[in-house]
């Protein structure tokens, strides 16, 4: 149990406050070391507290994939975040894949924003003066 006065409680609250302002968040895990207990805890916390946010799991250090990648990938799917993006920050492997995922989400967000603005303006123009 995390008390509200603990460093962990304070960090969780601060993270929750930041995530309330987000549409997308990246959850980075280490493909080389496999899932760690803290990864499982954070994944469960994100699943519970970020229902309105698109979580993208990023598996760093994926330049040499093995069985640990498979188990981490399965866990990410279990959390409901979709397939993880495998990349290597050191070599740049997978960065284009991450870009494509983020670009599609940004385009969708911009379309919804513009569409919502258009619909609001259309409704306002129908109001009697």
Q: What's the count of strands?
A: 3
The CATH C-level class name of the domain at 7-94: Alpha Beta
CATH architecture of the domain at 7-94: 3-Layer(aba) Sandwich
Quote the CATH topology of the domain at 7-94.
Rossmann fold
Count of DSSP-assigned helices: 4
CATH level-4 homologous superfamily of the domain at 7-94: P-loop containing nucleotide triphosphate hydrolases
Distance N to C terminus = 57 Å
Q: Which regions are unreliable across 5 or more consecutive residues at pLDDT < 50? A: none
Shape: globular
* Main sheet: strands, sense, barrel: 3 strands, parallel
State the helical fraction.
Answer: 40-55%
Beta-strand portion reads 5-15%
Task: Give the helix/strand class.
Answer: alpha/beta
Going across the major beta sheet, what is the strand order? Answer: 1-2-3
Cα radius of gyration in angstroms: 19 Å
Mean pLDDT, rounded to whole units?
81
Order of helices and strands: HEHEHEH
Fold topology:
Layout: H1 7-19, E1 24-30, H2 37-49, E2 54-60, H3 67-79, E3 85-86, H4 95-125
Parallel strand pairs: 1-2, 2-3
């Amino acid at each position: 149990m995390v008390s509200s006065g603990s460093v962990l409680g304070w960090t969780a609250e601060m993270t929750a406050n930041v995530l309330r302002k987000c549409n997308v968040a990246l959850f980075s895990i280490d493909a080389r070391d496999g899932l760690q207990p803290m990864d499982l805890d954070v994944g469960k916390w994100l699943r519970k507290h970020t229902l309105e946010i698109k979580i993208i799991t990023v598996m760093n250090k994926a330049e040499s994939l093995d069985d640990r990648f498979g188990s981490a990938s399965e866990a990410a799917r279990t959390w409901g975040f979709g397939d993880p993006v495998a990349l290597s920050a050191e070599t740049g492997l997978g960065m284009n894949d991450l870009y494509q995922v983020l670009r599609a989400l940004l385009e969708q967000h911009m379309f919804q924003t513009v569409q919502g603005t258009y619909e609001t303006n259309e409704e306002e123009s129908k109001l009697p003066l």
